[in-house]
């Protein structure tokens, strides 16, 4: 039986809190791809980015589920259950 995310109940309707990775924007770093915390709206960079700020956000806050903010991608990742899954809705637009 495939693994399931047991934290779907913690997903909230959130909007991205910034137009890019919050930490990278402050430090002037570049990112590869963006992730959105589905508990609070924090925008962080993926693990292919230098800062790995989405994962660091999870370790700091224990918010379990992030989703891709890339156009055309509708997947999410649960850090606690170590499982990915598809979402029905496309990613929200970033604020300008």
Task: Produce a short descriptive summary.
By secondary structure, the chain is of the alpha+beta class. It is 16% helix and 20% strand.
Attribute tags:
96 residues, alpha+beta, Herpes Virus-1, five-stranded antiparallel beta sheet, 2 helices
CATH architecture: 2-Layer Sandwich
Q: How much strand?
A: 15-25%
Q: Helical stretch count?
A: 2
CATH homology superfamily name: Zinc/RING finger domain, C3HC4 (zinc finger)
Number of strands: 5
Instruction: Tally the structural domains.
Output: 1
Secondary structure layout plus pairing:
Elements: H1 22-27, E1 34-37, E2 43-45, H2 53-61, E3 65-68, E4 75-78, E5 83-86
Antiparallel strand pairs: 1-2, 1-3, 3-4, 4-5
């Amino acid at each position: 039986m495939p693994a399931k995310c047991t934290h779907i109940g913690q997903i909230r309707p959130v909007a991205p809190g910034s137009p890019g990775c919050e930490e990278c924007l402050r430090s002037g770093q570049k990112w590869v791809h963006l992730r959105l915390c589905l508990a609070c709206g924090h925008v962080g960079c993926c693990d292919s980015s230098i800062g790995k700020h989405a994962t660091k956000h999870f370790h700091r806050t224990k918010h379990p589920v992030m989703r891709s903010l890339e156009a055309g991608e509708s997947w999410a990742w649960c850090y606690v259950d170590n499982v990915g899954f598809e979402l029905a809705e496309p990613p929200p637009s970033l604020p300008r």
